[in-house]
Design brief:
- With 457 residues, the chain is α+β, with helices and mostly antiparallel strands.
- It has helices spanning 2-14, 21-39, 44-59, 103-112, 121-126, 131-135, 169-255, 261-289, 301-318, 338-355, 411-421, 445-451; strands spanning 63-70, 73-83, 86-90, 94-95, 116-117, 140-148, 151-160, 296-300, 322-325, 333-337, 365-373, 376-383, 425-430, 436-443.
- Strands 1, 2, 3, 4, 5, 6 and 7 form a 7-stranded antiparallel β-sheet that branches. A 5-stranded mixed β-sheet has the order 9-11-12-14-13.
- Helix 1 packs antiparallel against helix 7.
- The chain is rod-shaped.
- It binds adenosine-5'-diphosphate.
- Adenosine-5'-diphosphate is lined by residues 347, 351-352, 355, 383, 385-388, 396, 401-404, 407-412, 436.
Length: 457
């Protein structure tokens, strides 16, 4: 583009070989200044102001106007008029009226896309039906098209009362070159406005998506709750069935002619174990009932691991998944909403289990490791499942990403937002030679209380 401008400038400078070179230099310099001022403007209002001011000053006009085409109609967007008190600017948009400007000249430029100078005899012939023009022949009018890549953008209009010949060839050329740069800048400004409009539309769409995601998040946590509830029902009914059968066995051993107290004692021990198991499950259910209202407290990640294992035990058994954890009671105290963190861990464990469904050529193993480092508690959930691609961390947390036929792809983004709302981090890395590791980092309870305010989830 710069080369093109220079070509136009050179042509302008060479146009009058006999002219005073200093004059040519000054005009060319004026063009450069006008160029710079116009190309620096990216807002339409600023651009029109620069254009109208430059045009009035540089061509010595008494009145200038910029009209732009919008939906096939001309709108005067900016006007400047030299008065005895200085220059008056009107930067308001109004539709072009019959009485505005020298309409005949103006419309000829609109039709031909060529500049028109109304103190030039051959041009006058073209406008002889322009009554207004013939009545006021003492007025010089110069009209230049603003031609962009997309066609005619508008017209730059200048007039002066003091007779013919006021718009010299240099001034006409100057206005034409200004119009050329102005057209480029107008197209750029429109593009900028369009980009800004698209950006704000994209922001609005992103906001909608966020709201949708939050909404879906709620639904998804409901889904998780349903899964949790189904597991709990399964977990409670199993020990109840077992208690009933152990109690029946104990009764039978008691009713023998010679009661077998060893067998009775074994049955009672089984009843005791099963009732403890059922009791624990009911405790989880109670915790689940509080799910709707987030409440922050200090809790042990070890408990979360145990509770999640309790509700996923049947799935682990069904798919012959070996399980291993180093979570030790009292070593992993964190601050947060226990139920939400439970949801996160449950989601990650269910994902790990599901990733191992299809594995037949190696052991299916789930490791849950807890450690502390730099004021944070790290919970790592590792599996020997199908694994993920090397660069999966770039997209796996994106909403709606799923490889499962029944999946929704909302689990991981929700988990990540919960963990982040706890001032923590959720990360993922592929394991070698197979499997995946998800890590939940949460601030250690003491660190959390002293460093951060309570998060508003
Ligand atoms: P969903 O389970 O509904 O697909 P998620 O957001 O929980 O939604 O998981 C998104 C995707 O991430 C899964 O479909 C799966 O492709 C991948 N993924 C998650 N966890 C694991 C894992 N442990 N191993 C392999 N892939 C996983």
């Amino acid at each position: 583009m710069a080369d093109f401008h220079m070509t136009r400038l050179n042509r302008l400078e060479r146009a009058k070989p006999g002219n005073d070179m200093r004059m040519v230099y000054l005009e060319a310099n004026a063009v450069r200044i006008a160029f710079r001022a116009l190309s620096n403007e990216t807002s339409m209002a600023g651009l029109l102001e620069v254009l109208i001011r430059n045009s009035l000053e540089r061509v010595g006009a008494e009145r200038c106007a910029v009209a732009l085409l919008r939906d096939g109609e001309f709108w005067i967007e900016a006007e400047a008029r030299a008065t005895v008190d200085g220059v008056e600017y009107v930067m308001e948009s109004r539709q072009l009226q019959e009485c505005d400007l020298r309409r005949g000249v103006f419309m000829a430029v609109a039709r031909t896309h060529r500049r028109a100078l109304l103190d030039d005899a051959p041009w006058l012939a073209e406008f002889e039906r322009d009554v207004d023009a013939t009545q006021r022949t003492q007025r010089s009018v110069l009209c230049v098209p603003l031609l962009g890549q997309s066609g005619l953008l508008g017209i730059l209009y200048a007039e002066k009362d003091s007779g013919p010949g006021v718009f010299t060839e240099e001034k006409v050329a100057l206005l034409e070159v200004s119009a050329l740069q102005a057209a480029i800048s107008i197209e750029n400004a429109r593009l900028c406005a369009e980009i800004m409009r698209s950006n704000s539309m994209r922001e609005a769409a992103k906001q909608e998506l966020r709201e949708l995601r939050d909404g879906l998040g709620w639904g998804s946590s409901h889904n998780t709750m349903r899964q949790l509830a189904a597991s709990i029902i399964h977990e409670v009914s199993q020990p109840l069935v077992s208690i009933a059968s152990s109690a029946g066995a104990a009764l039978r051993f008691m009713r023998h002619d010679e009661p077998n107290f060893v067998e009775v004692e074994d049955a009672l021990k089984r009843i005791e174990l099963d009732s403890t198991r059922a009791h624990n499950v009911v405790r989880s259910l109670r915790a689940l009932a509080k799910l709707s209202a987030p409440s922050f407290s200090v809790f042990d990640l070890h408990d979360i691991v145990q509770e999640v294992l309790l509700v996923t035990r049947s799935q682990l058994e069904e798919h012959t998944i070996q399980f291993d954890t180093n979570a030790v009671c009292g070593t992993s105290m964190v601050w947060g909403d226990k139920i939400q963190i439970q949801q996160v861990v449950l989601n990650l464990v269910i994902n790990a289990i599901e990733a191992m469904y299809e594995i037949t050529d190696r052991e299916r193993r789930l490791f849950i490791r807890v450690s502390t480092s730099g004021g944070h508690v790290r919970l790592a959930i590792e599996d020997t499942g199908v694994g993920v691609e090397k660069d999966a961390a770039n997209y796996i947390f994106a909403p709606f990403f799923t490889t499962k036929s029944h999946g929704m792809g909302m689990g991981l983004p929700i988990c990540r937002s919960i963990v982040q709302a706890h001032a923590g981090q959720l990360t993922m890395e592929p394991l070698s030679p197979y499997g995946t590791c998800f890590e939940v980092w949460l601030p250690e309870a003491r660190q959390r209380i002293s460093t951060y305010p309570e998060p508003g989830i």
